[in-house]
Design brief:
Elements: H1 5-13, E1 20-23, H2 26-34, H3 47-53, H4 56-61, E2 63-64, E3 67-68, E4 70-77, E5 80-83, H5 85-91, H6 99-111, H7 129-140, H8 145-152, H9 161-174, E6 208-210, H10 215-222, E7 233-236, E8 250-257, H11 262-271, H12 274-284, E9 287-288
Antiparallel strand pairs: 1-8, 2-3, 4-8, 4-9, 5-6, 5-7
Helix pairs in contact: 7-9
Length: 289
């Protein structure tokens, strides 16, 4: 299947869906299930066995009206800022623990003639999701959870003052010519997968990069000799309004089946196996679902 949601929707509507596809979120699964496009996985998968290896939360998220339509292969923690510990130490920088400290550190880097951030939002037909992650993390740190839930379910407008504040805080970094490697316009064309590379040049072209746990595999693909925890590490995306603390934003890789074929069944059964989980966790830096 395609990772491009627009391509997937077009194929499904044309009656030519892939046998199996990833889905961007449980909401997309519900839409396809509601229209009768998905195979009920419980017709050939043992749900009791799945329950023994998966949290009930994952099973619930993959279920619509009592039928299992989606399974999760792996998860990612998104509320992370990656950095080069050796570059930090050489410059005398310390890891920030609040938004104010992170902005102050960024200003210090600029004063030292350095560029604080590397940001890349390009991702083909899915471009922009990396920016969405910023907004979501900021929202979680500036509003009540109930307000966040209203926002993601279209209960409040994108021009609501609370949402606008999140964009303004993101803009404090992303729109600052001195903060961003290549400048604000470049972040639209820099691919998300290569954007952390700027942290590992000599001297570094940037010092911080916000991205999920999966970016470990991209870093090691570009720089296979780097040692996690020594040459690159991360710190939690810091709190903004203290009363909301440091919540964690997560995401997961969801698979659904559109055509009931022997190969599709075999694939779906494989991806929930411990063998598949070990590959995603051990080699790609994912978290096990």
């Amino acid at each position: 299947g395609s990772r491009d949601p627009a391509v997937l929707i077009t194929r499904v509507e044309a009656g030519n869906p892939p046998d199996v596809s990833t889905l961007p979120n449980p909401g997309a699964m519900v839409e396809f299930a509601r229209s009768g496009k998905l195979v009920d996985l419980s017709t050939f998968m043992d749900v009791d066995t799945l329950m023994s290896g998966y949290s009930s939360t994952w099973i619930d998220l993959g279920t619509y009206k009592g039928k299992l339509h989606g399974v999760f292969l792996s998860a990612d923690l998104k509320s992370l800022v990656w950095y080069n510990p050796k570059a930090f130490a050489a410059a005398g920088y310390t890891v920030p623990t609040t938004w104010e400290e992170m902005i102050a550190l960024s200003d210090k880097m600029v004063a030292d003639g350095k560029t604080p951030w590397s940001i890349g939002l390009e991702s083909g037909g899915a471009s922009g999701w990396a920016g969405t992650d910023w907004i979501e993390d900021i929202m979680l740190r500036t509003v009540e959870p109930e307000v966040y839930d209203l926002w993601v379910s279209h209960g409040i407008s994108w021009v609501d003052d609370r949402v606008q504040r999140a964009f303004e805080l993101f803009g404090q970094i992303a729109l600052n010519e001195k903060y961003v490697y290549g400048g604000p316009n470049a972040i639209l064309t820099i691919n998300f997968g290569v954007s952390p590379d700027a942290l590992f040049t000599t001297p570094p072209n940037a010092y911080m990069h916000k991205q999920a746990t999966f970016i470990k595999s991209f870093i090691l693909n570009s720089f296979p000799n780097l040692v996690p925890g020594e040459d690159f590490d991360f710190f939690p995306f810091p709190p903004i309004d203290p009363q909301y603390g440091t919540p964690a934003l997560g995401a997961a890789d969801m698979f659904a089946m559109f055509n009931d074929t022997p190969d599709a069944r075999a694939f779906m059964e494989y991806i929930v196996s411990s063998e598949a989980q070990e590959i995603w966790v051990g080699e790609l830096g994912k978290l096990s679902a």
